[in-house]
Amino acid sequence: MKRLFLIAFLALLPSCNGIFPGIYDSGESDLVTGYGFIAHNPSDNSGKVYIDATDYTKWVYLDFHGRTAVTAGMSEEEAPAEWDIAVHRYDVKTNGAAVLETGITGLELFMSSGKMPEGEYVEDEWTTEKIIVDMSGMMDGNIGYSESWYNSELSKWLKVDTSTMPPLYSMSHKVYAVKLADGSNLALKLSNYMDASGVKGFMTIDYVYPVEF
After folding, report:
1. CB 207, CB 48: distance < 8 Å
2. C-alpha to C-alpha distances, 55 to 60, 97, 138, 143, 198, nearest whole angstrom
3. pLDDT digit string (tens) for 22-57?
4. DSSP 62-87
5. What pLDDT, on the 0 to 100 scale, is given for residue 162?
6. Do residues 204 and 88 lie in contact, with contact meaning Cβ atoms separated by under 8 Å?
7. CA dist 109 to 113, 114, 116, 123, 204, Å?
């Protein structure tokens, strides 16, 4: 009897995620297979990107023009020739773009507004204390940083509160308007920051590119 009960209990485990919503800090996680630009709808220029940004020593470079994702090292010299934004864990930098966090929470609502929002679009800044590359000495207060460009506005898409352990994660749920260096416009929203098993650093980004009203 005990053996039968154990088998029945184990069979129920895969569905426990739905029984207790939030217990896994799921970040609205859904099962996604494949990486890079995994969906594109040419009728409205919308799409979805899914990337592995778990490595503290890598950037993932996204080219919305060519719909390609390239993972490279930390030095600027390792960046691909063509890219628009790059993601390091939850940090973001751009290739000469400017970004505005909107008050809109859905891409359809953003597009129905009929125009790019007005406001103070934020360009990248050079930082020496934002991009963490080495956490091995964290318990002793020693964290390794990399010098890099950093967009503080787009990096608002996920707040990580390290004042508690484990850290608390909260997505902004906002749409970000991005004016790219070539004059074209991009709208994107972070919709998830972990995979279906709850591992953080797997980023799902919904987007519209090019934005055409």
Report:
1. yes
2. 10, 24, 16, 15, 16
3. 323 344 445 556 899 999 999 999 999 999 999 999
4. EETTTTEEEEE-SSGGGS-SS-SEEE
5. 82
6. no
7. 6, 9, 12, 25, 19
Residues 6+ apart with CB under 8 A from 169: 25, 27, 158, 159, 160, 161, 193, 200
Phi and psi dihedrals of 123, rounded to 5? -90, 170
Q: Which residues pair with 200 in a beta bridge?
A: 194
Express each pLDDT in 72-116 by its tens digit. Answer: 999 999 999 999 999 999 999 999 999 999 999 999 999 999 999
How far, in Å, CA of 86 to CA of 93, rounded?
A: 5
pTM for the predicted model, two decimal places: 0.84
Measure the CA–CA gap between 14 and 11, rounded to whole angstroms.
7
Dig out the tokens for 104 from the structure.
């809109």
pLDDT at 85 (0 to 100)? 98
What type of residue sits at position 204? T
